[in-house]
Amino acid sequence: xxxxMKAGVTDEDVQRVVERVTELxxxxxxxxxxxxxxxGAIGERTPxxxxxxxxxxxxxxxxxxxxxxKLASREFHEADTILDIKGxxxxxxxxxxxxxxxxxxxxxILFGVGQAVKDAGASILRGGAFKPRSSPYSFSGMGKEGLxxxxxxxxxxxxxxxxxxxxxxxxxxxxxxxxxxxxxxxNMQNYNLLLEVGKTDKPVFIxxxxxxxxxxxxxxxxxxxxxxxxxxxxxxxGIRTFSDEVRFTLDVSAxxxxxxxxxxxxxxxxxxxxxxxxxxxxxxxxxIAAGAQGAIIEVHSCPERALCDGxxxxxxxxFAKLMEQIRQIAExxxxxxxxxxxxxxxxxxxxxxxxxx
Length: 357
Ligand code: PEP
Ligand code: MN
Fold this sequence. Notes:
The protein is an alpha/beta fold and 357 residues long. It has helices spanning 11-23, 47-54, 107-120, 144-157, 171-177, 191-198, 214-226, 254-261, 270-274, 280-289, 316-332, and strands at 2-5, 27-32, 37-42, 59-63, 83-85, 88-90, 94-100, 124-126, 161-164, 180-183, 204-207, 232-236, 266-268, 294-298, 336-339, 342-343, 350-351, 354-355. Strands 7, 8, 9, 10, 11, 12, 13, 14, 15 and 16 form a 10-stranded mixed β-sheet that branches. A 4-stranded antiparallel β-sheet has the order 2-3-1-4, with helices on one face. Strand 7 (94-100), helix 3 and strand 8 form a beta-alpha-beta unit. It binds phosphoenolpyruvate and manganese (II) ion. Manganese (II) ion (MN) binds next to loops.
Protein backbone atom coordinates (compact mmCIF):
# COMPACT_ATOMS: atom_id res chain seq x y z
CA UNK A 1 0.00 0.00 0.00
CA UNK A 2 0.99 3.61 -0.39
CA UNK A 3 -0.07 6.13 2.23
CA UNK A 4 -0.24 9.52 0.51
CA MET A 5 0.17 12.39 2.95
CA LYS A 6 -1.58 15.76 2.57
CA ALA A 7 0.36 18.80 1.36
CA GLY A 8 2.15 20.63 4.18
CA VAL A 9 2.09 17.62 6.47
CA THR A 10 4.23 17.71 9.64
CA ASP A 11 7.12 15.36 10.47
CA GLU A 12 5.10 14.14 13.49
CA ASP A 13 2.21 13.11 11.21
CA VAL A 14 4.61 11.14 9.01
CA GLN A 15 6.26 9.56 12.04
CA ARG A 16 2.85 8.52 13.39
CA VAL A 17 2.06 6.78 10.10
CA VAL A 18 5.46 5.04 10.09
CA GLU A 19 4.82 3.75 13.62
CA ARG A 20 1.31 2.54 12.81
CA VAL A 21 2.51 0.80 9.65
CA THR A 22 5.13 -1.02 11.75
CA GLU A 23 2.51 -1.99 14.38
CA LEU A 24 0.40 -3.47 11.59
CA UNK A 25 3.28 -5.82 10.75
CA UNK A 26 4.18 -3.98 7.52
CA UNK A 27 7.51 -2.46 6.49
CA UNK A 28 7.37 1.37 6.30
CA UNK A 29 9.27 3.26 3.57
CA UNK A 30 8.74 7.03 3.89
CA UNK A 31 9.74 9.07 0.88
CA UNK A 32 9.63 12.85 0.63
CA UNK A 33 8.99 13.96 -2.94
CA UNK A 34 9.02 17.44 -4.41
CA UNK A 35 5.23 17.67 -4.31
CA UNK A 36 4.11 15.09 -1.78
CA UNK A 37 5.28 12.77 0.95
CA UNK A 38 4.31 9.14 0.79
CA UNK A 39 4.85 6.21 3.13
CA GLY A 40 5.09 2.85 1.40
CA ALA A 41 3.67 0.02 3.51
CA ILE A 42 5.06 -3.23 2.18
CA GLY A 43 3.44 -6.50 3.18
CA GLU A 44 -0.01 -8.02 3.02
CA ARG A 45 -2.78 -5.49 2.47
CA THR A 46 -5.95 -5.93 4.51
CA PRO A 47 -9.07 -3.70 4.38
CA UNK A 48 -8.75 -3.14 8.15
CA UNK A 49 -5.16 -1.90 7.90
CA UNK A 50 -6.11 0.36 4.99
CA UNK A 51 -9.03 1.87 6.93
CA UNK A 52 -6.96 2.45 10.05
CA UNK A 53 -4.23 4.22 8.13
CA UNK A 54 -6.77 6.38 6.26
CA UNK A 55 -7.97 7.79 9.58
CA UNK A 56 -4.58 9.02 10.82
CA UNK A 57 -4.01 12.81 10.86
CA UNK A 58 -2.30 14.18 7.76
CA UNK A 59 -3.25 11.21 5.58
CA UNK A 60 -4.80 12.10 2.23
CA UNK A 61 -5.45 8.63 0.82
CA UNK A 62 -4.26 5.05 1.01
CA UNK A 63 -3.83 3.21 -2.28
CA UNK A 64 -2.88 -0.28 -3.30
CA UNK A 65 0.26 -0.61 -5.42
CA UNK A 66 -1.14 -2.18 -8.55
CA UNK A 67 2.04 -3.95 -9.68
CA UNK A 68 3.53 -7.13 -8.20
CA UNK A 69 6.79 -5.23 -7.71
CA LYS A 70 6.37 -2.59 -5.04
CA LEU A 71 9.64 -0.92 -4.04
CA ALA A 72 10.78 -0.90 -7.68
CA SER A 73 7.61 0.79 -8.93
CA ARG A 74 7.12 4.40 -9.94
CA GLU A 75 3.94 4.41 -7.86
CA PHE A 76 6.08 3.82 -4.79
CA HIS A 77 8.78 6.34 -5.73
CA GLU A 78 7.73 9.03 -8.16
CA ALA A 79 11.08 10.70 -8.88
CA ASP A 80 13.96 9.03 -10.70
CA THR A 81 16.40 7.38 -8.33
CA ILE A 82 19.85 8.91 -8.63
CA LEU A 83 22.66 6.86 -7.10
CA ASP A 84 25.94 8.28 -5.88
CA ILE A 85 28.69 5.82 -6.72
CA LYS A 86 32.01 7.16 -5.44
CA GLY A 87 30.92 10.68 -6.34
CA UNK A 88 29.49 9.73 -9.75
CA UNK A 89 25.76 10.24 -10.14
CA UNK A 90 23.88 7.49 -11.92
CA UNK A 91 20.25 7.83 -13.02
CA UNK A 92 17.94 10.79 -13.69
CA UNK A 93 19.47 13.01 -16.38
CA UNK A 94 22.98 11.61 -15.89
CA UNK A 95 24.39 9.33 -18.58
CA UNK A 96 27.31 7.09 -17.60
CA UNK A 97 29.25 4.83 -19.89
CA UNK A 98 30.70 1.68 -18.37
CA UNK A 99 33.51 0.24 -20.50
CA UNK A 100 36.33 -2.26 -20.42
CA UNK A 101 37.12 -5.79 -21.48
CA UNK A 102 34.59 -8.58 -21.17
CA UNK A 103 36.96 -10.55 -18.95
CA UNK A 104 40.00 -9.57 -16.94
CA UNK A 105 42.76 -11.42 -18.76
CA UNK A 106 46.00 -9.71 -17.75
CA UNK A 107 47.26 -6.60 -16.00
CA UNK A 108 48.55 -5.21 -19.30
CA ILE A 109 45.21 -5.46 -21.12
CA LEU A 110 43.09 -4.29 -18.20
CA PHE A 111 45.24 -1.24 -17.46
CA GLY A 112 45.73 -0.40 -21.16
CA VAL A 113 42.04 -0.66 -22.04
CA GLY A 114 41.08 1.04 -18.75
CA GLN A 115 43.28 4.06 -19.54
CA ALA A 116 41.91 4.24 -23.09
CA VAL A 117 38.25 4.15 -22.06
CA LYS A 118 38.87 6.69 -19.33
CA ASP A 119 40.60 9.00 -21.82
CA ALA A 120 37.60 8.63 -24.13
CA GLY A 121 35.15 9.57 -21.35
CA ALA A 122 33.93 6.35 -19.74
CA SER A 123 33.14 6.87 -16.06
CA ILE A 124 33.03 3.26 -14.78
CA LEU A 125 35.44 0.38 -15.52
CA ARG A 126 34.12 -3.10 -16.28
CA GLY A 127 35.89 -6.47 -16.26
CA GLY A 128 34.70 -9.97 -15.41
CA ALA A 129 36.65 -12.17 -12.99
CA PHE A 130 33.97 -14.87 -12.82
CA LYS A 131 32.63 -15.57 -16.29
CA PRO A 132 29.46 -17.62 -16.78
CA ARG A 133 30.10 -19.40 -20.10
CA SER A 134 27.74 -21.38 -22.26
CA SER A 135 30.46 -24.05 -22.57
CA PRO A 136 32.11 -25.62 -19.50
CA TYR A 137 35.35 -25.82 -21.52
CA SER A 138 35.64 -22.05 -22.11
CA PHE A 139 37.78 -19.63 -20.08
CA SER A 140 35.81 -18.92 -16.91
CA GLY A 141 37.75 -15.98 -15.54
CA MET A 142 40.77 -15.27 -13.33
CA GLY A 143 38.76 -15.33 -10.09
CA LYS A 144 40.37 -13.67 -7.06
CA GLU A 145 43.49 -12.67 -8.99
CA GLY A 146 41.27 -10.88 -11.50
CA LEU A 147 39.40 -9.09 -8.73
CA UNK A 148 42.70 -7.86 -7.28
CA UNK A 149 43.75 -6.50 -10.66
CA UNK A 150 40.37 -4.79 -11.12
CA UNK A 151 40.62 -3.10 -7.76
CA UNK A 152 44.17 -1.97 -8.53
CA UNK A 153 43.09 -0.60 -11.91
CA UNK A 154 40.10 1.20 -10.37
CA UNK A 155 42.36 2.92 -7.83
CA UNK A 156 45.06 3.76 -10.38
CA UNK A 157 42.53 5.20 -12.85
CA UNK A 158 40.25 6.67 -10.18
CA UNK A 159 37.22 4.91 -11.65
CA UNK A 160 34.51 2.92 -9.87
CA UNK A 161 34.53 -0.72 -10.97
CA UNK A 162 31.85 -3.25 -11.87
CA UNK A 163 32.24 -7.02 -12.05
CA UNK A 164 29.92 -9.99 -12.23
CA UNK A 165 29.13 -12.18 -9.25
CA UNK A 166 27.77 -15.60 -10.20
CA UNK A 167 27.60 -17.44 -6.89
CA UNK A 168 26.04 -16.30 -3.60
CA UNK A 169 29.17 -17.62 -1.83
CA UNK A 170 31.32 -15.12 -3.77
CA UNK A 171 29.34 -12.05 -2.65
CA UNK A 172 31.79 -11.22 0.22
CA UNK A 173 34.90 -11.41 -1.96
CA UNK A 174 33.35 -9.40 -4.81
CA UNK A 175 32.11 -6.88 -2.24
CA UNK A 176 35.69 -6.51 -0.99
CA UNK A 177 37.25 -5.78 -4.39
CA UNK A 178 34.61 -4.11 -6.61
CA UNK A 179 32.28 -1.12 -6.37
CA UNK A 180 29.25 -2.49 -8.23
CA UNK A 181 27.87 -6.03 -8.37
CA UNK A 182 26.85 -7.16 -11.85
CA UNK A 183 24.13 -9.79 -11.99
CA UNK A 184 24.36 -11.38 -15.43
CA UNK A 185 21.50 -12.26 -17.72
CA UNK A 186 21.96 -15.97 -16.88
CA ASN A 187 21.53 -15.21 -13.20
CA MET A 188 18.71 -12.69 -13.31
CA GLN A 189 16.42 -15.18 -11.63
CA ASN A 190 18.99 -16.64 -9.24
CA TYR A 191 16.94 -15.53 -6.27
CA ASN A 192 19.47 -16.58 -3.62
CA LEU A 193 22.11 -14.49 -5.34
CA LEU A 194 19.73 -11.51 -5.53
CA LEU A 195 18.90 -11.84 -1.83
CA GLU A 196 22.58 -12.02 -0.94
CA VAL A 197 23.59 -8.84 -2.81
CA GLY A 198 20.44 -7.24 -1.41
CA LYS A 199 21.91 -7.59 2.08
CA THR A 200 24.91 -5.43 1.13
CA ASP A 201 25.18 -1.68 0.61
CA LYS A 202 26.88 -1.74 -2.81
CA PRO A 203 25.02 -0.97 -6.06
CA VAL A 204 23.62 -3.93 -7.99
CA PHE A 205 23.48 -3.83 -11.80
CA ILE A 206 20.90 -6.38 -12.98
CA UNK A 207 20.87 -7.51 -16.60
CA UNK A 208 17.63 -8.66 -18.14
CA UNK A 209 17.50 -12.39 -18.74
CA UNK A 210 17.51 -13.32 -22.40
CA UNK A 211 13.94 -14.63 -22.18
CA UNK A 212 12.70 -12.53 -19.28
CA UNK A 213 9.77 -10.14 -19.38
CA UNK A 214 10.06 -6.61 -18.07
CA UNK A 215 7.89 -7.55 -15.11
CA UNK A 216 10.24 -10.43 -14.31
CA UNK A 217 13.22 -8.06 -14.46
CA UNK A 218 11.48 -5.69 -12.09
CA UNK A 219 10.65 -8.59 -9.75
CA UNK A 220 14.38 -9.42 -9.68
CA UNK A 221 15.06 -5.81 -8.68
CA UNK A 222 12.38 -6.22 -6.01
CA UNK A 223 14.34 -9.13 -4.52
CA UNK A 224 17.35 -6.86 -3.99
CA UNK A 225 15.28 -3.89 -2.79
CA UNK A 226 13.32 -6.09 -0.37
CA UNK A 227 16.55 -6.79 1.54
CA UNK A 228 17.16 -3.08 2.15
CA UNK A 229 19.60 -2.40 -0.69
CA UNK A 230 17.98 0.37 -2.70
CA UNK A 231 20.95 0.89 -5.02
CA UNK A 232 19.79 -0.96 -8.12
CA UNK A 233 20.46 -0.30 -11.82
CA UNK A 234 18.65 -2.22 -14.57
CA UNK A 235 20.10 -3.19 -17.94
CA UNK A 236 18.51 -4.22 -21.22
CA UNK A 237 21.06 -6.48 -22.95
CA GLY A 238 19.07 -8.08 -25.74
CA ILE A 239 16.51 -10.85 -25.74
CA ARG A 240 16.06 -14.01 -27.77
CA THR A 241 13.87 -13.52 -30.84
CA PHE A 242 13.52 -15.24 -34.21
CA SER A 243 16.04 -12.80 -35.69
CA ASP A 244 19.35 -14.61 -36.13
CA GLU A 245 21.38 -11.83 -37.72
CA VAL A 246 22.59 -10.63 -34.35
CA ARG A 247 23.39 -12.47 -31.13
CA PHE A 248 20.29 -11.10 -29.35
CA THR A 249 17.69 -8.47 -30.22
CA LEU A 250 18.17 -5.25 -28.24
CA ASP A 251 14.70 -4.39 -26.98
CA VAL A 252 15.04 -0.62 -27.25
CA SER A 253 11.44 -0.09 -26.23
CA ALA A 254 12.24 -1.72 -22.88
CA UNK A 255 14.05 1.49 -21.92
CA UNK A 256 11.03 3.85 -21.88
CA UNK A 257 8.72 1.06 -20.71
CA UNK A 258 10.88 0.34 -17.64
CA UNK A 259 11.32 4.05 -16.99
CA UNK A 260 7.56 4.52 -17.05
CA UNK A 261 7.06 1.72 -14.54
CA UNK A 262 10.11 2.18 -12.35
CA UNK A 263 12.23 4.93 -10.83
CA UNK A 264 15.45 2.91 -11.17
CA UNK A 265 18.18 3.87 -13.67
CA UNK A 266 18.11 1.94 -16.95
CA UNK A 267 21.19 1.08 -19.03
CA UNK A 268 21.62 -0.74 -22.33
CA UNK A 269 24.26 -3.29 -23.28
CA UNK A 270 24.80 -3.01 -27.05
CA UNK A 271 27.77 -5.42 -26.98
CA UNK A 272 26.01 -8.61 -25.92
CA UNK A 273 22.97 -7.76 -28.03
CA UNK A 274 24.98 -7.17 -31.21
CA UNK A 275 27.59 -9.87 -30.82
CA UNK A 276 29.50 -8.06 -33.61
CA UNK A 277 31.61 -4.97 -33.02
CA UNK A 278 30.44 -3.12 -36.15
CA UNK A 279 26.87 -3.07 -34.86
CA UNK A 280 27.71 -1.87 -31.35
CA UNK A 281 27.70 1.91 -32.09
CA UNK A 282 24.24 1.87 -33.73
CA UNK A 283 22.71 -0.04 -30.82
CA UNK A 284 24.45 2.08 -28.19
CA UNK A 285 23.16 5.28 -29.82
CA UNK A 286 19.66 3.83 -30.18
CA UNK A 287 19.61 3.04 -26.46
CA ILE A 288 20.83 6.51 -25.45
CA ALA A 289 18.33 8.10 -27.86
CA ALA A 290 15.57 6.05 -26.22
CA GLY A 291 16.52 7.67 -22.92
CA ALA A 292 18.84 5.09 -21.36
CA GLN A 293 20.85 6.52 -18.48
CA GLY A 294 23.96 4.71 -19.62
CA ALA A 295 25.50 1.88 -21.59
CA ILE A 296 27.92 -0.91 -20.78
CA ILE A 297 30.30 -1.48 -23.68
CA GLU A 298 33.02 -4.08 -24.19
CA VAL A 299 36.35 -2.70 -25.42
CA HIS A 300 39.55 -4.62 -26.17
CA SER A 301 42.91 -3.55 -27.56
CA CYS A 302 43.47 -6.87 -29.33
CA PRO A 303 40.04 -8.47 -29.78
CA GLU A 304 41.32 -11.31 -31.97
CA ARG A 305 43.23 -12.58 -28.95
CA ALA A 306 40.48 -11.92 -26.37
CA LEU A 307 39.61 -14.91 -24.20
CA CYS A 308 35.94 -13.98 -24.13
CA ASP A 309 33.56 -12.10 -26.47
CA GLY A 310 36.31 -10.84 -28.81
CA UNK A 311 34.03 -10.49 -31.88
CA UNK A 312 31.88 -7.88 -30.13
CA UNK A 313 34.69 -5.88 -28.49
CA UNK A 314 35.23 -2.45 -30.05
CA UNK A 315 38.73 -1.07 -30.49
CA UNK A 316 39.72 1.82 -28.20
CA UNK A 317 39.91 4.35 -31.06
CA UNK A 318 36.40 3.42 -32.24
CA PHE A 319 35.12 3.62 -28.67
CA ALA A 320 36.44 7.20 -28.48
CA LYS A 321 34.48 8.09 -31.66
CA LEU A 322 31.36 6.47 -30.23
CA MET A 323 31.68 8.47 -27.01
CA GLU A 324 31.56 11.68 -29.06
CA GLN A 325 28.32 10.58 -30.71
CA ILE A 326 26.85 9.44 -27.39
CA ARG A 327 27.47 12.91 -25.98
CA GLN A 328 25.60 14.52 -28.87
CA ILE A 329 22.63 12.15 -28.70
CA ALA A 330 22.43 12.44 -24.90
CA GLU A 331 22.23 16.20 -25.21
CA UNK A 332 19.38 15.99 -27.73
CA UNK A 333 17.28 13.97 -25.27
CA UNK A 334 18.11 16.31 -22.40
CA UNK A 335 20.64 14.10 -20.66
CA UNK A 336 24.27 14.81 -19.89
CA UNK A 337 27.24 12.48 -20.03
CA UNK A 338 29.42 12.04 -16.96
CA UNK A 339 33.11 12.08 -17.79
CA UNK A 340 35.19 11.15 -14.75
CA UNK A 341 32.83 13.08 -12.51
CA UNK A 342 32.64 16.07 -14.87
CA UNK A 343 29.44 16.59 -16.83
CA UNK A 344 28.80 17.76 -20.36
CA UNK A 345 25.77 19.78 -21.42
CA UNK A 346 23.03 21.15 -19.25
CA UNK A 347 20.05 18.95 -18.49
CA UNK A 348 16.57 20.15 -19.23
CA UNK A 349 14.15 20.65 -16.39
CA UNK A 350 12.64 17.48 -14.98
CA UNK A 351 8.85 17.25 -15.10
CA UNK A 352 6.54 14.42 -14.14
CA UNK A 353 6.90 11.65 -16.69
CA UNK A 354 9.87 13.06 -18.58
CA UNK A 355 11.98 16.07 -19.34
CA UNK A 356 11.07 19.44 -20.80
CA UNK A 357 12.49 20.59 -24.08
C1 PEP B 1 29.01 -9.76 -19.63
O1 PEP B 1 28.65 -8.62 -19.31
O2 PEP B 1 30.17 -10.04 -19.98
C2 PEP B 1 27.96 -10.83 -19.72
C3 PEP B 1 28.28 -12.10 -19.54
O3 PEP B 1 26.74 -10.36 -20.03
P1 PEP B 1 25.31 -11.08 -20.00
O4 PEP B 1 25.09 -11.51 -18.58
O5 PEP B 1 24.37 -10.00 -20.44
O6 PEP B 1 25.36 -12.23 -20.96
MN1 MN C 1 30.96 -10.36 -22.36
